[in-house]
Specification:
With 138 residues, the chain is α/β, with parallel strands linked by helices. Helix 1 packs across helix 5 and helix 3 runs parallel beside helix 4. It is globular, with a radius of gyration of 14 Å. It starts with 7 loop residues before the first strand and ends with a helix. The C terminus is likely disordered.
């Protein structure tokens, strides 16, 4: 049996105006140590930029670290574009400073998992490794 390809994860940490910065190093390290392949989203971390990166990189997961309070518009925009462009299957996850009430709204909207602030990065990485492979049948 051949070796499985690693799960590719686009990581984003959007800032104001769609510009972003690199994902937090502890998160990147945990995902890499879990055998996941991390792709940094780059400067354009608007919903359109994130979806374009996901498609061009052939990723199956997008992980958004949301700290701005604009998480509903950001995640919603990503989910809308994925649907409009027929991109799938894609697992959309996130974390950061997101109020508990908003987590339920994001999940109803289609975000697969939201990790509260303080979740150990290894736990998030293990969740992706376990759930994305299980969901894909790989």
């Amino acid at each position: 049996m051949g070796e499985l390809s690693p799960i590719r994860v686009v990581m984003a940490k959007p800032g104001a105006g769609g510009r972003g910065s690199a994902a937090p190093p502890p998160l990147v390290d945990a995902f890499t140590e879990a055998g996941l392949e991390v792709v940094q989203a780059g400067d354009d971390q608007s919903p359109a930029g994130l979806v374009a990166t996901l498609v061009s990189e052939g990723a199956r997961v997008i992980c958004i670290s949301s700290l701005l309070g604009e998480h509903e518009a950001l995640f919603g925009g990503v989910l809308d574009l994925l649907s409009e462009q027929g991109v799938g299957p894609v697992t959309v996850i996130g974390g950061g400073i997101i109020p508990t009430a908003d987590i339920a709204v994001l999940k109803e909207r289609g975000v697969t998992e939201v990790f509260s602030a303080g979740t150990p990065p290894r736990d998030a990485a293990a969740w992706v490794r376990d759930h994305v492979r299980d969901a894909s049948g790989v």
